[in-house]
Design brief:
alpha/beta, eight-stranded parallel β-barrel, 37% helix, 17% strand
Length: 363
């Protein structure tokens, strides 16, 4: 059987295939109140109609102060639930499962740069270079502030359950708050949160479970290199042991040059990290990073034994990536251009234009 189209089980939840669409922010679509727009619903419904088994909704902010950009989806108030529920219903009608990614931006916050300790981002710029590259430095969080943010994650998770999501993913990579705690590159605390970098994420899960019960699926996007692979192993074991239902492995604080990577390894470094972590834990493990073709995705699943592959840019090019992969048609390919993540008009993706032209010729 085609490894891409075997079902996968995450506790009680069955996902129809092994294709996950990772969280990718739709910039400029939300208003500053964080509410869902019709464009969001149309986009996610279209991706679900494309046959992709699991959609992980873009990073959704747990607080006004924790947003990366002002026009970012939010789940910090009950008023957000109605719009989020509409999005869930649209995805379910199309036959896919949907998780929500909960996020606090930490040092990258547009409003209040915070973190486990003092940490500077050099040359950081917001999407589409709205502002020149800037230097952001986080202020260390006190214990009471840590507890407040953890309770914001709890409240957001309760709202996510009320909105009907199939699961929750906490965002613990790419320089955002949970990732700041998990990474020795950003976490220089001398208290328990520094001695055990996974403690913030472990405590947060425990508090969420106390509020929502054992039923909801809860996983985490985590870095495989924090900054070393051994650090990634340490975090993975702690998170799995704490009860996270899946680990979605990517780069961590940044796209570090990984240690321990065999010179002959044929897949991207984060896939190697996911492969190694899969051997350590008993929960499903996802892999990601520039998976450019259906055959590459099949090879990864077959050779690494990870449970799911994230197809991100490929789905931006072609929302029907899964359907085309199943039928053996051209799935399209990302051209890796700057327009990809930061464009305002998402209908003008150069890769999508090339894909549509080739599809028309084939038809």
């Amino acid at each position: 059987m085609d490894p891409l189209f075997k079902s996968v089980q995450i506790r009680h939840l069955t996902i129809k295939n092994r294709i996950a669409v990772p969280a990718m922010i739709r910039y400029y679509w939300a208003k500053e109140d964080g509410a869902v727009s019709d464009m969001h619903i149309c986009h996610y419904e279209r991706v679900a109609q494309g046959g992709n088994g699991l959609i992980i909704q873009e990073a959704t902010s747990i607080s006004e102060q924790g947003r990366w950009v002002p026009d970012m989806l939010g789940i910090w108030r009950d008023g957000h639930i109605e719009g989020l529920s509409r999005m869930v219903e649209a995805v379910h009608r199309a036959g896919s499962k949907i998780f929500i990614q909960l996020q606090h931006s930490g040092v990258k916050s547009h409003y209040d740069s915070v973190g486990p300790s003092v940490h500077t981002l050099n040359g950081f710029s917001e999407p589409r270079n709205i502002r020149p590259a800037i230097h952001k430095t986080s202020r260390p969080l006190g214990i009471e502030e840590i507890e407040i943010i953890q309770e914001q994650f709890v409240s957001a998770a309760v709202r996510a359950v009320r909105a009907g999501y199939d699961g929750i993913e906490l965002h613990g990579t790419h320089g955002y708050l949970i990732g700041n705690f998990l990474s020795k590159s950003a976490n220089h605390r001398t208290d328990a949160y520094g001695e055990n970098p996974a403690l913030f994420a472990v405590e947060t899960l425990g508090k969420i479970r106390a509020a929502v019960g054992s039923g909801p699926i809860i996983g985490i996007r985590m870095g495989g290199f924090e900054p070393t692979l051994d650090d990634g192993f340490r975090n993975a074991l702690a998170l799995a042991d704490a009860g996270y239902d899946f680990l979605n492995v990517s780069y961590g604080e940044s796209e570090q040059i990984p240690d321990q990577l065999p010179e002959s390894y044929q897949f991207p470094p984060p896939i190697y990290a996911a492969q190694r972590i899969k051997k350590l834990v008993k929960v499903p493990v996802f892999g990601v990073y520039r998976i450019t073709s259906a055959q590459m995705a099949r090879d990864i699943l077959s050779e690494t034994e990870i449970d799911m592959v994230n197809i991100g840019r490929g789905v931006l090019v072609n929302p029907s990536w899964a359907n085309d992969a199943r039928s053996g048609d051209n799935t399209g390919i990302c051209l890796n251009c700057e327009a990809c993540q930061w464009r305002i008009d998402y209908t003008k993706c150069p890769g999508e234009i090339v894909y549509q032209k080739n599809k028309c010729k084939a038809d």
